[in-house]
Each structure stands twice: as structure tokens, then as C-alpha cells.
Amino acid sequence: MEVGLNHFLFVSTILFSMGIYAIVTRKNAVLVLMGIELILNAANINFIAFSRFGNFGLDGQLIALFVIVLAAAEAAIALAIVLNIYKNLATVNIDEVDKLRD
What does the pLDDT read at residue 91? Predict the structure, then answer.
């Protein structure tokens, strides 16, 4: 049995669905960030799979590397924001973030 494009797309779809589910159902900011990371990883799988099976050379790998760097920067900034919210409100529940306006 040979692993083809459909297998990569299936795994990517599962990761993307799990990421969307994590974003929609969770109230904890850290778990929402984990959902965003799952979505970015699903996009990376798509980039690399289409690069491999579409004969696009190294373009998919370069874009995936850029997405990884972007995800690392996003995680660092988002975690700093979450720590600041925790310092001010003593919770990371995203429903209570509107209290920062007061």
C-alpha cells in the first residue's frame, strides 16, 4: 500500500477539525491557542503534501517553514498576553476578558 495525497489530506482534515473544535468549545485561552496550532499544522501538512505530489519543488517546504516561524512568534506573543490577563484577573477564562475594560 502506498501513501498518497488523499492520506495526507485526510490527516490534515482531521487535524483542522480538531483545531476548530478546540477553538469553538474551549473557554481556556491556552487550549484555544493549542487549537490554533493544530490548524496551522494542518495547513503545513497540506503545503508539504501538495508540494510533494504536485511537483512544485521546494515551495511547499519553504512556506511550511515560514508558517512554523509565524506560529512560534504567535505562540510567544499570545502566551505573554495570557500571562498578563492571568496577572490582572487571576483567570485565563476568555469569557471574562471583557472585564479588562473596567
Answer: 85
